Amino acid sequence: MKALAAFATGARGTGKTAWCKQWIKASGSKRVMVWDYKHDDGLSDVGKAYADWAAFVAACTRPQFTARYLVSPDHDPHEQFEAFCRLAWREGNLLMFVDELAEVTKANKAPPAWRKCVNVGRSYDNGTKSLSILAASQRPPEVDKSFLGNCDVIHAGRLGYASDARQLAAMWGIQPKELATLPDLHWIEKRADAPEVARGVLSFSRKKPAVKPAKTRP
Ligand SMILES: Nc1ncnc2c1ncn2[C@@H]1O[C@H](COP(=O)(O)OP(=O)(O)OP(=O)(O)O)[C@@H](O)[C@H]1O
Ligand SMILES: [Mg+2]
């Protein structure tokens, strides 16, 4: 399977994290590392959570795992992110999901280990290792350019800044207003291998059957 890089963007609450969860599931990846920057309730059902770094590292050496690192608010997030990316690189053959990417990268500044994962991770160690990368952030210009440029898929919900909507719309040949006015959970997506954008609405399958309406008395 090709190691893909994908990016989800959009204002808060537009469905980025929810879409990433569906992406992870659809990928069928048996080895998943998650960077849970804000200890997101929405990620609570994604693998096992680790606040302890050593335990997280141990989990990521297993043949199969979905391990979610709860970024420590008491330590420098940049140092933690560098360690997270180095671990992903060392282990290889996994999907790494970085939520809230803008907290650890800037448009013109990618941490070295992240840059290596992004630029070289498609295939390395004589083709024996690869990294699939998934990241989410509210604004594209807050994310490092080499990641954006390397993405196979860019998935956008409503963009709150007019300049963000203009930029993406110009790249995609659509009207900025469309990106600026998408309702929550509505999205527009561009795949590098497709000439046109796709549009859709995020939906959630119910695990349990819907609650039946109470019976009315005769
Ligand atoms: N399993 C679910 N079933 C129904 N609705 C859901 C489910 N998961 C998420 N949602 C809805 O999706 C909305 C978007 O949530 P999500 O956490 O994906 O936003 P986000 O774009 O990541 O926002 P933020 O930038 O604040 O992280 C939530 O407000 C919630 O209503
Ligand atoms: Mg989110």
Question: How would you sum up this structure, described in words?
Answer:
The protein is α/β, with parallel strands linked by helices and 218 residues long. It has a single domain (5-201), classed as P-loop containing nucleotide triphosphate hydrolases (Rossmann fold). It has helices at residues 16-27, 53-59, 77-91, 112-120, 145-150, 162-172, 176-180; strands at 5-9, 31-36, 48-50, 65-70, 94-98, 131-137, 153-156, 186-191, 198-201. Strands 3-4-2-5-6-1-7-8-9 form a nine-stranded mixed sheet, with helices on both faces. The longest helix has 15 residues, at 77-91. The termini are far apart. The mean pLDDT is 94. The structure holds adenosine-5'-triphosphate and magnesium ion.
Summarize the structure.
The protein has 218 residues and is of the alpha/beta class. Helix content is 30%, strand content 21%.
The geometry reads as globular
- Order of adjacent strands in the largest pleated sheet: 3-4-2-5-6-1-7-8-9
Give me the number of helical elements.
Answer: 7
Low-confidence stretches: none
Strand/helix succession:
EHEEHEHEHEHEHHEE
Instruction: Estimate the mean pLDDT confidence.
Output: 94
Question: What proportion of the residues form beta strands (DSSP E)?
Answer: 15-25%
Rg from Cα: 18 Å
- The H-level CATH homologous superfamily, spelled out, is P-loop containing nucleotide triphosphate hydrolases
> Based on DSSP secondary structure assignment, what is the total number of beta strands?
9
Largest sheet: 9 strands, mixed
Structural domain count: 1
Q: What fraction, in percent, of the residue positions are helical?
A: 25-40%
Question: How far apart, in Å, are the first and last alpha carbons?
Answer: 58 Å
At the fold tier of CATH, the topology name is: Rossmann fold
